[in-house]
């Protein structure tokens, strides 16, 4: 099919034609209401026996259509039909009820335009095809010429009979062209009249940004929780294997730590994946497994880490153990920062070194410092690189703090400052 044929009779053109005919069908009740007014004004004359009275009834019914378009469901329904039949992208249309004056005005304009253009095209679609088909077959069916007054004389000429089928075919092509042109115009105007307003776009962008921020936070939680668990379990299993025959008590403690670590991590993993699976990232991701905090879970974290053989020298201020001393967001993020710092030490420093952890409150800030000597062997880089230090920096920045990491003489040092005041 040529480009012209597709534009007139292709699938999209046919669907847009159907859209216009639906507009004509929707216009009929308003035409009937208009005829109730026009009929008495015309002296009781039959409205449907006169084309001029029908057009008057049609013109009178369109303002009523504009008023009824203010119902809340009009814009969602029209947007759905336009998306399905006119080939307009879903992202260019609004599906909520019109609320502001501007949205209501644009919806009324669209509904009136749809019914007005649809009524005209639908009327042409009913009237033109029978007349055009009659013209096409007229040279071959003489009885048709006898049934129309004036036609026997006109079609007594050979040239008129020859042109009659061409005129009928031209009328059908003109009808298809009108329907395609009007359908294309409505499809072009639909995003302007039914599309989201500037306020809708801003609100949608803010909602997407908030959803992305929450999902990024969940991704950080998964990375820190699962990454630490895998590092700790690997180290604990390795130590237990080496001491299986010589220190059964240590092996039992290591296996208990592995069990506790995996059970807790699986609970957190199920909770976060459940939120992502349900598509509600704004909910409580830790409904089944509450987010661990520095005040309530630091001792268990240190115990599980030491059970793997890593020596941790921890200095923790007494205020840190008081849940009321730290704002809840600071306590949650600080726990993950300490967890990631110990995970880095597990992965890179090795078992034979001592990690120094210091958590204190100074000058209105919670200060976390993790120091360890460099490992004997340089660890092989992981594919794609790690995200732990970047996650720590993101967590600190989220609370208005700062994080620094790097070599300090013979030590690797991680230092984080989190403000305690003004944290929401």
UniProtKB/TrEMBL annotation:
Keywords tagged on the record: ATP-binding, Kinase, Membrane, Nucleotide-binding, Phosphoprotein, Transferase, Transmembrane, Transmembrane helix, Two-component regulatory system
Enzyme class: transferase
GO molecular function: kinase activity
Segments crossing the lipid bilayer: 20-43, 55-73, 108-141, 161-187
Catalytic activity, EC: 2.7.13.3
Matching Pfam families: HisKA_3
Domain Signal transduction histidine kinase subgroup 3 dimerisation and phosphoacceptor stretches: 215-279
InterPro entries: HATPase_C_sf, Sensor_HK_TwoCompSys, Sig_transdc_His_kin_sub3_dim/P
Catalytic activity as recorded in UniProt: ATP + protein L-histidine = ADP + protein N-phospho-L-histidine
Superkingdom field: Bacteria
Record PANTHER family: NITRATE/NITRITE SENSOR PROTEIN NARX-RELATED, NITRATE_NITRITE SENSOR PROTEIN NARQ
Protein name: histidine kinase
Organism: Streptomyces salinarius
């Amino acid at each position: 099919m040529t480009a012209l044929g597709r534009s007139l009779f292709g699938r999209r053109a046919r669907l847009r034609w159907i859209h216009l005919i639906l507009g004509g069908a929707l216009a009929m009740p308003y035409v009937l209401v208009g005829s109730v007014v026009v009929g008495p004004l015309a002296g009781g004359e039959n409205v449907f026996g006169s084309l001029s009275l029908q057009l008057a009834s049609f013109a009178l019914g369109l303002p009523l259509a504009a008023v009824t378009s203010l119902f809340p469901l009009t814009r969602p329904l029209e947007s759905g039909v336009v998306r399905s039949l006119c080939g307009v992208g879903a992202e260019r249309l609004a599906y909520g009820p019109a609320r502001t004056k501007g949205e209501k005005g644009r919806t009324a304009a669209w509904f009136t335009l749809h019914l007005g253009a649809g009524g005209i095209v639908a009327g042409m679609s009913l009237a033109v095809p029978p007349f055009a088909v009659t013209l096409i077959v007229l040279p071959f069916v003489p009885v048709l010429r006898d049934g129309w007054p004036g036609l026997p004389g006109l079609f007594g000429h050979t040239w008129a009979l020859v042109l009659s089928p061409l005129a009928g075919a031209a009328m059908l092509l003109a009808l298809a062209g009108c329907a395609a042109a009007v359908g294309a115009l409505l499809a072009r105007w639909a995003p302007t009249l039914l599309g989201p307003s500037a306020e809708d776009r801003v609100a949608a962008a803010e909602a997407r940004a908030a959803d992305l921020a929450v999902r990024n936070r969940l991704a950080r939680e998964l990375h820190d929780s699962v990454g630490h668990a895998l590092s700790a379990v690997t180290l604990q299993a390795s130590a237990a294997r080496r001491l299986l025959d010589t220190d059964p008590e240590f092996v039992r403690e290591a296996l208990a730590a592995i069990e506790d670590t995996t059970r807790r991590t699986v609970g957190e993993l199920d909770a976060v994946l459940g939120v992502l699976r349900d598509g509600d990232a704004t909910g409580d991701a830790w409904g089944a497994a509450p987010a661990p905090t520095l005040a309530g879970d630091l001792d268990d974290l240190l115990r599980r880490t030491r059970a793997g053989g890593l020596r941790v020298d921890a200095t923790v201020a007494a205020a840190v153990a008081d849940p009321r001393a730290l704002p809840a967001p600071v306590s949650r993020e600080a726990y993950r920062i300490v967890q990631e710092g110990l995970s880095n030490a597990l992965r890179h420093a090795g078992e034979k070194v001592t990690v120094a952890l210091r958590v204190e409150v100074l000058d209105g800030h919670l200060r976390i410092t993790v120091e360890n000597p460099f490992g004997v062997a340089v660890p092989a880089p992981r594919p794609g690189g790690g995200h732990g230090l970047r996650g720590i920096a993101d967590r600190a920045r989220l609370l208005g703090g700062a994080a620094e990491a790097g070599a300090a003489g013979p030590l690797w040092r991680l230092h984080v400052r989190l403000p305690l005041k003004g944290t929401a």
